[in-house]
Specification:
mainly alpha, A middle domain of Talin 1, two-stranded antiparallel ribbon, globular
Length: about 375
């Protein structure tokens, strides 16, 4: 039996190896997905929303399904909610810091509204304390309908000749092989990272729910982070944004909807998650919608705000779980100062955009 120190060191090695595999897998997956988009007649945005998002959500699906079958529903719910919060605040934030992200009109008309509807539906189901079979069917059904509609809309649009020229040298089998290899590296890498991080967290005496909301959520979001960050670095911002939004949709519709059908009687939602974490997820998606609506770009300073909010959320979860003495002061600072200022900034941006669009419409008419 390894000693406590040896076990922690081994977990640290798992984390490092997992990170290396995630970076490599993200690079391979982005290259293959970009080529596959052209070869199949789909836009990079749709490939990000469908193929890449489902592929990078595989770790969440594996962890959540395994947790449900093991009776660890706290970990399952915490993983999905925490992953979606991490997807928007951490991953989109980091990508926006790398390069400003364009949110295309289709996202404002279809993808973000569907995500907001699914998020609000999850809030409603969570307030009832259980995601039953019917609720799971609703979540899964909306997601399947959304995927079908997205593919139909994308195929109706002509391919971009410039993008086609960039990828015409990669044959379809090679592109598909890149995607499969990238997915394999991401899944194995994320599993190593999750195992190592969860082992370290358990050694520190952190609860399963907190591990699900933080360590496992961040770990299973690493494929999205790796794929989206590398896509942003390579200038594939459509793929980066589409991957994150698509992963959020897949997490609620597929990753949470399917296990709720497998679990006898559905999934019990911890009261603390329904009262705090799910509302935070709703606010996060709502904030993203406002930011995208008020300019169609997520710029660097907005990305920094997203990352800072994620750090604050994670700090609160950890402080609350450990009953730390700093919790009261931290909470007071957030409630009295940070959140009101953020609300004023978002409200001001929204009003400015509404006024700008009204003036533009008046000039046109």
């Amino acid at each position: 039996m390894p000693t406590y120190t040896e076990a922690v060191i081994l977990d640290g090695v798992f984390v490092l190896v997992g990170l290396v595999m995630l970076v490599g897998g993200g690079e391979v997956l982005v290259r293959g997905a970009s080529a596959l988009a052209i070869k199949t007649g789909l836009s990079p945005l749709i490939v990000g929303l469908t193929v890449v998002s489902v592929a990078t959500s595989a770790p969440e699906l594996a962890v959540t399904t395994g947790a449900v079958l093991s009776g660890e529903t706290d970990l399952a719910i915490g993983n999905v909610v925490g992953s979606n919060i991490a997807n928007v605040l951490l991953i989109l934030g980091v990508c926006a810091v790398i390069t400003p992200l364009l949110v295309r009109r289709q996202m404002l008309k279809l993808d973000l509204p569907v995500l907001l509807v699914l998020t609000l539906a999850l809030l409603l189901f969570a307030n009832n304390g259980r995601i039953g079979t019917f609720e799971g069917l609703v979540l899964l059904g909306v997601w399947v309908a959304y995927i079908a509609m997205s593919i139909h809309v994308s195929r109706a649009k002509p391919a971009d000749p410039a993008q086609e020229a960039d990828t015409k040298t990669m044959k379809m089998p090679i592109a598909a092989g890149f995607v499969l290899l990238g997915v394999a590296l991401l899944v194995v890498g994320s599993q190593l990272l999750v195992d190592g991080a969860a082992g370290i967290a358990s050694a520190l005496g952190v609860s399963g729910l907190v591990i699900g909301l933080t360590v496992v959520a961040i770990g299973t979001s690493m494929p999205e982070l790796a794929a989206s960050a590398i896509a942003a670095i390579r200038g594939q911002t459509d793929l980066a944004v589409g991957n994150v939004i698509g992963s959020c949709l897949a997490n609620i519709g597929l990753v949470l909807g399917l296990p709720s059908l497998l679990a006898p009687g559905g999934l019990d939602v911890p009261a603390s998650v329904g009262a705090f974490d799910v509302p935070v997820m709703v606010a996060t998606v709502g904030g993203l919608f406002i930011v995208a609506f008020t300019g169609a770009w997520i710029v660097r300073w907005e990305g920094l705000v997203f990352v800072a909010l994620y750090v604050a959320y994670t700090a609160y979860v950890v402080l609350a779980a450990t009953h730390h003495d700093a919790l009261e002061g931290f909470t007071s600072t957030m409630v009295i100062f940070v959140l009101p200022v953020l609300g004023v900034v978002l409200a001001g941006s929204l009003l400015h955009e509404v006024k700008r669009r009204a003036e533009t419409a008046a000039r046109v008419s």
